[in-house]
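Continuing the batch. This is chain 6 of the set; chains 1 through 5 are on the previous pages. Same settings as before, nothing changed between runs. Recording input and output for traceability.
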Amino acid sequence: MGPDLSARQGDITTATTDAIVNAANSSLLGGGGVDGAIHAAAGPGLLDACRELRRTTLPDGLGVGDAVVTPGFDLPARWVVHTVGPNRHRGERDPRLLASCFTRSLDEAARVGATSASFPAVSAGVYGWDAREVAEVAVTAVRSWDGSGVDSVQFVLFSPAVLAAFRAALDGS
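Output for chain 6:
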């Protein structure tokens, strides 16, 4: 059945859920958009934690559709779950890879004890996925997630157009 779902417009760096999800790149070392905003708001500890992951468990970076968790440092959220969305511009068009971003992020959030999580529109924007398709894949993936522990998920979207796409997906229209 999955967690309770909602969507709102806002800045994910201010979300007060236990975990926020970062639409990261495979290097985990920061970037633009959501990734850059989360790194800036979390402070230098986040970059240090990501560098340590690269030095130890992820020397080749994080794969598309996978997820890994770090502390939230200066963020209101206790944890940041980093996931790498598929990049349509590089031919990564399989919706199963995109769905995996959401389910693997929930797996990681649950593993560290998070009961609530906030997601951005992973792969929408510079990675070239249409917001409506991202919304449909995200909502379906979270609703069908077969894990336990995360009871509440909110999609925190930056623009009114992306929020409208997520609300339509949540309403099933």
